[in-house]
Amino acid sequence: xxxxxxxxxxxxxxxxxxxxxxxxxxxxxxxxxxxxxxxxxxxxxxxxxxxxxxxxxxxxxxxxxxxxxxxxxxxxxxxxxxxxxxxxxxxxxxxxxxxxxxxxxxxxxxxxxxxxxxxxxxxxxxxxxxxxxxxxxxxxxxxxxxxxxxxxxxxxxxxxxxxxxxxxxxxxxxxxxxxxxxxxxxxxxxxxxxxxxxxxxxxxxxxxxxxxxxxxxxxxxxxxxxxxxxxxxxxxxxxxxxxxxxxxxxxxxxxxxxxxxxxxxxxxxxxxxxxxxxxxxxxxxxxxxxxx
Length: 292
Ligand code: AMP
Hints:
The chain has eleven helices and nine strands. By secondary structure, it is α/β, with parallel strands linked by helices. The structure holds adenosine monophosphate.
């Protein structure tokens, strides 16, 4: 299968329109680059389920509430292209904010408020609280990415649990595409793969599996019959604290119904979510306590 690397949004739009016109079913994997096995699992799944696979690499400034985080975010376009090609992608594209929003961007280079897409109620609480504006940035770029690619199916990772809910809501509102949520890929020691992991010092990296260990301990409690949110999050808080990381939140939610606040006990089903800072690096993870 041939592979194309495009560095313009307009060129990507034209390519996708041509492929759809040829009757091709497009799968789409949006990313911010610095790709790892977690991203490649999405590409492989898309390649197995669709005729052709489009990957985007765009470090979207709209979704970064912390300028330092945006600046530090790792970038490696050529490496990304080689990896997705090997995983079965047929096109990778990147672009600029001006390329994505040529008609909307103001003279100051900023996107005016009316051009932003409001995320639905799943943006409330947890990530939405700790990263103000983040999900609005996500909804705005994903909405535009869906316009550019117009895929039949789009693939997202369960690692970004709340993002999946926001994107599913957006896709429902638009009427397309089908959103496929893929399982979190982890290192052998449990650490969820993330582009930000490469920013960890060797010593922080050693302690980073604490988030996953806490989640696995919460799953053990859930399996043993514990249904009270405070008791379920206790081992997560303890693991993050023992690692010396700064906890942003440890929480449980009902996977069937998102609520900004903690749901009432007893929970029939539960997903546990955690965010913590390892030095300057922000780590998130989650686990469905009833699965696996
Ligand atoms: P990002 O480049 O971090 O914006 O991620 C792009 C896509 O890859 C998102 O749908 C993420 O949820 C997904 N992803 C990131 N890390 C993982 C992982 N460890 N396992 C599965 N999917 C992931």
